[in-house]
Structures are given as structure tokens and as C-alpha cells.
């Protein structure tokens, strides 16, 4: 929210204003999109727990290599793994980090992003709900025109291998 990129975006990545919202409009957007999304996530986690006794949430994003106003950290690794002391198994975090490093990538834990998505109903309440964040530096798979570069399929393969480690 501090940078206009909270639940209801008002600014773009470069800090440019993309829309002006009143508090009422922001609340309407939150009720229409954000709240239902999290209700669905809570239900999905609940179903996974009922069926398997455990649940793994993999929160994946990408980030720009260049510094932008909303990013407080200047650290720009190839991959950022976000973790939560309660919900992210240390062994899993280590295995994914080691796998990526063994493939020549620079990897940081909780830099420039920290934490990982956990459904609100289970946050800090159920150790059987696990979560990890995988952030990929866009320079690895996109060119300056945001088109797939020659490394796109290699990055895709490595991310899929990370998912296999999680599985």
C-alpha cells in the first residue's frame, strides 16, 4: 500500500499513477476480488488438509532486474526464495537453493522479497500448511521488450525441477 501496489493498485511498477481510487472504491474492489480469492484459497487448503493431512502452497512471481520505486532492497539475485519460519521447511528451502546454485544461479533467501503466501485461516496456526515463495528475476527469461528470450525454456525446466523437489 505504501507504494500504491497493495490490494488495489493505484501505481505501476515505475511509480506512475494508473488510477485514482477513493477509499470506498478500494473497499469495493477488495470485497469483489481479493476477499473471494482468499476464501477460495482457504477452502483449497482445507480440502487438501482433509484429503492428505498436509498442504503445500507454492507462491511464484517474477521481479524486474532494474530498481523500481516500490522495491526497498537493491539486491537483485537470479532467484529469491521467500520463507516463513513457521510454514517453510528449512530442508526444502536448502534443497531448492542448492539446486538453483548448482545450476549457476545467484540465489538469496528473503531478499529482495520476504515471506510466503499462507491462507489466513491457517497462518501461524497449522504446521501442516507449508509454503514457499519462488521469485524469478525477469532478466533470466525475458528480453527488454518483455518477449521470451533464448533462456526461457531452460528457466522453465529449472523451475519445474524445483517443483519436483517440493513434490
Quick recap:
With 167 residues, the chain is an alpha/beta fold. It has helices at 23-52, 90-102, 152-166; strands at 55-63, 79-82, 107-109, 129-137.
Keywords:
alpha/beta, 4 strands, four-stranded mixed sheet, 167 residues, 3 helices
Question: What would you say this structure looks like, in words?
Answer:
This protein is α/β, with parallel strands linked by helices and 167 residues long. It contains three helices and four strands; from the N terminus they run αββαββα. A four-stranded mixed beta sheet has the order 1-4-2-3. It starts with 22 loop residues before the first helix and ends with a helix.
What is the radius of gyration?
17 Å
Which structural class do you get from the secondary structure elements? Answer: alpha/beta
Number of strands: 4
Overall shape: it is globular
Number of helices: 3
* Helical proportion, percent range: 25-40%
Weakly predicted, low-confidence segments: none
Topology pattern, helix = H, strand = E:
HEEHEEH
Describe the protein's topology:
Blueprint: H1 23-52, E1 55-63, E2 79-82, H2 90-102, E3 107-109, E4 129-137, H3 152-166
Parallel strand pairs: 1-4, 2-3
Antiparallel strand pairs: 2-4
Helix pairs in contact: 2-3
Amino acid at each position: 500500500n505504501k507504494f500504491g501496489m497493495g490490494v488495489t493498485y493505484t501505481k505501476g511498477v515505475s511509480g506512475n499513477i494508473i488510477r485514482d481510487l477513493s477509499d470506498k472504491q478500494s473497499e469495493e474492489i477488495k470485497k469483489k476480488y481479493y476477499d473471494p480469492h482468499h476464501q477460495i484459497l482457504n477452502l483449497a487448503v482445507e480440502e487438501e488438509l482433509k484429503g492428505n493431512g498436509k498442504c503445500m502452497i507454492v507462491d511464484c512471481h517474477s521481479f524486474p532486474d532494474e530498481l523500481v520505486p516500490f522495491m526497498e532492497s537493491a539486491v537483485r539475485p537470479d532467484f529469491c526464495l521467500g520463507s516463513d519460519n513457521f510454514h517453510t521447511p528449512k530442508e526444502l528451502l536448502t534443497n531448492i537453493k542448492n539446486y538453483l546454485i548448482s545450476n549457476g544461479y545467484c540465489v538469496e533467501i528473503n531478499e529482495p522479497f520476504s515471506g510466503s503466501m499462507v491462507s489466513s485461516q491457517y497462518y501461524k496456526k497449522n504446521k501442516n500448511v507449508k509454503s514457499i515463495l519462488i521469485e524469478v528475476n525477469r532478466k533470466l527469461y525475458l528480453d527488454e521488450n518483455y518477449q521470451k528470450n533464448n533462456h526461457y525454456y531452460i528457466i522453465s525446466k529449472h523451475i519445474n525441477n524445483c517443483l519436483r523437489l517440493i513434490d
